[in-house]
Amino acid sequence: MKRCLMLDVDGVIVNGRPEDGRSWATDIERDLGVAPDRLQAVFFAPHWADIVTGRKNLLDVLEACLPALSPTVTAQAFIDYWFERDSCVDEALLAECDELRRRGLRIFLATNQEHMRARHLMDRLALGKHVDGMVYSAQVAAQKPQRAFFDAAAMSSGSSPEDIVLVDDTKANVEAALEAGWQAIHWSKGSSLLDILENRQVGQASSRHGG
Questions:
Q1: What does the pLDDT look like over 58-72, one tens digit per residue?
Q2: Cβ contacts of residue 69 below 8 Å, gap of 6+?
Q3: d(CA 173, CA 6)
Q4: What's the predicted TM-score (pTM) here?
Q5: CB of 97 within 8 A of CB of 80?
Q6: Domain 4-15+89-208 is in which class?
Q7: Taking the domains of the chain in order of start, what are their residue ranges?
């Protein structure tokens, strides 16, 4: 039996800007000349669902959209700004991940991401050092809370649904995980992952079954 933990990223492991935890786009109009409401209308609203499920390429879409938002900002400069600022990592939570893996629990990231940021999270922010793998929406062509995401994640992990625990800060994702037969925990910032899982005997169960 292969028990495993699936961790959401944004709102759980990564929480906004390193300096204050606020949204990466808080000062985007001051810094890049991009108005947040225009960014939502021109980029996120019409394109993000396709980007985050792998149907469109982030760089290509930004190159098409940015002239209407800020003609002096390149797509790569925009991405660099975004990724560098959306990078406040909860180091205490990662330390708890390391401890749980030492106890034999397998841990995966389960997250709505496009390809470029998925690589950035695993490599540049080094989340890959603390987990056994990542399942992300652009990779599996479905996003949480769609059932197809959870089915793909279970298959990727090699675990049965009943042996998977999702930790996520979005209630709709928690509810969808439960409907898919997983266990699920609604995350609150500042919580202890070890305390939550020990109360549910997840860590102990994984040790008894050899991870």
A1: 999 999 999 999 999
A2: 34, 35, 38, 39, 42, 43
A3: 12
A4: 0.92
A5: no
A6: alpha beta
A7: 4-15+89-208, 28-85
